[in-house]
Design goal:
The chain has 322 residues and is α/β, with parallel strands linked by helices. The chain has one domain: 3-Layer(aba) Sandwich (Rossmann fold), CATH 3.40.50. It is built from six helices and eleven strands. A nine-stranded mixed sheet has the order 2-1-3-4-11-10-9-6-7, sandwiched between helices. The termini are far apart. The N terminus is likely disordered.
């Protein structure tokens, strides 16, 4: 009888140890869901590239949600369907890089429900205009009000296109003496993204935004038009903030207005993105002084930015990692 009791106790003890180990392993391996769907900046190429790095560095489970056509091929020109958003139910982080999507209500709800969960969010460039509803007035709040509250700003304007994909259009530099682990290993660089206006004139960033990276437009339509008082040549390009959900929870948010496909060829851009994702996950102490290892897994040779048929054809969603 004593042996049976001892064996039972031992089995129970081992079960507890296994449960603790499993919980710890789960904690170390977050589930990151990337939502792509923009017809201009090749997010369907840059976000999987980041996902592969995060799978290597964190062992993270990576899910990429793509805009798909009726045949199941990745097609960013399809603005009313992003497949796989159900993954947000188990996500530890939502990363958004979409542009003016007019999604069915049930798909939009999965995104907004995640935002209201209080879990962290990361946004790139056109996420300031994640949605664009033209007819259904019940969804109009998602066009401007929602991104302004969640990310810190809505779509306003930019300084213009000048030889896109040919030369950098924004000089990116660190703001003053700002210190944040998100800048570890990040050096000033030249970005191909034309500068977005998010702060200045009659516009101000919303909420408790803490900006730490700025950009200066190297060419500007607003300068030619004499509107620099309203749209200055310098503007924030990266910040952190908190999003206060309806239930009172505070979600960590990292956002950058950069995101041209060629920007991600620059190691400092990749470190900025990866460090920001670590920070959003609450892993800032794990960011090395030199920044997260941003070496690309495989190769990263994106198509150029632009509308129309410039995306890579004939590709179906694929699994990253195990």
């Amino acid at each position: 009888m004593k042996n049976i009791v001892k064996l039972t106790f031992l089995l129970a003890f081992c079960t507890i140890l296994f449960s603790l180990k499993t919980a710890e392993e789960t904690k170390k391996k977050p589930h990151i869901v990337f939502i792509t769907g923009d017809e201009e900046y090749r997010s369907e190429e840059s976000m999987p590239m980041l996902g592969k790095i995060l799978n290597r560095e964190l062992g993270a489970k990576i899910t990429i949600c793509y805009a798909l056509d009726s045949a199941g091929f990745i097609n960013p020109n399809v603005n009313n369907n992003i497949a796989g958003l159900e993954a947000l139910k188990t996500a530890d982080l939502m990363v958004v890089f979409t542009r003016w999507r007019e999604l069915p209500k049930h798909q939009a709800k999965m995104i907004t429900d995640y935002a209201e969960s209080g879990k962290p969010i990361v946004g790139f460039r056109t996420a300031t205009h994640t949605f664009k509803y033209n007819k259904d007035s019940t969804m109009f709040y998602l066009n401007d009000e929602w991104p302004a509250k969640v990310y810190g700003q809505q779509w306003i304007t930019h300084h213009g296109h000048f030889g896109d994909n040919e030369t950098p259009l924004t000089s990116v530099y660190l703001k003053g003496e700002t210190k944040t682990p998100i800048l570890n290993g990040v050096q000033p660089f030249q970005a191909y993204s034309w500068l977005y206006h998010v702060d200045g004139g009659k516009w101000k960033l919303n909420g408790d935004c803490k900006t730490f990276l700025e950009g200066k437009a190297l060419k500007s339509n607003h300068e030619k038009a004499g509107k620099l008082d309203e749209y200055p040549l310098t503007n924030p390009v990266a910040w952190t903030k908190s999003y206060a959900t309806k239930s009172g929870k505070l979600a960590r948010v990292f956002f950058t207005t950069l995101g041209h496909p060629y920007d991600f060829k620059e190691v400092s851009m990749r470190k900025l993105a990866l460090n920001g994702i670590y920070w959003a996950l609450g892993l800032e102490k794990k960011i090395p002084q030199t920044g997260v290892n941003a070496d690309v897994v495989g190769e990263y040779k994106p198509n150029e930015s632009g509308f129309g048929e410039k995306f890579k054809k004939g590709i179906k969603p694929y699994t990253i990692g195990k």
